[in-house]
Amino acid sequence: MPLPPLPRLRRVPAALLVPARGLLEARVPWVRDRALDHVVEREGDLVPFLLTKDALLAATPPPHAVPLHSLPSTIPFPYRPLRFLREYPSAFALSPHPIEVSPTPRLSALHAAEAQVVDATLPDAADRLLRLLMLAPSRALPLRLVARLRLDLGLASDFQRSLLPSYPDYFALSPDGSFLELVCYRKDLAVSAMQAYTQRTGGYKVGDAVAFPLSFPRGFELDKKVRKWLDEWQRLPYISPYEDGSHLAPRSDITEKRTVAVLHEVLSLTVGKKMEKEVLVKLGEVLRLPPGFRKVVARHPGIFYLSHKLGTQTVVLRESYRRHMLVDKHPMMGIRYQYLHLMHMGVEEVGKGKGKGKDRRSSRSEQNIGEEFGTAGEDDENKEEYDDEDDEDEVDEEDMEAGVASEDHKSDDDVDEDMEEQISH
Question: What is the model's pTM?
Answer without folding.
Answer: 0.80
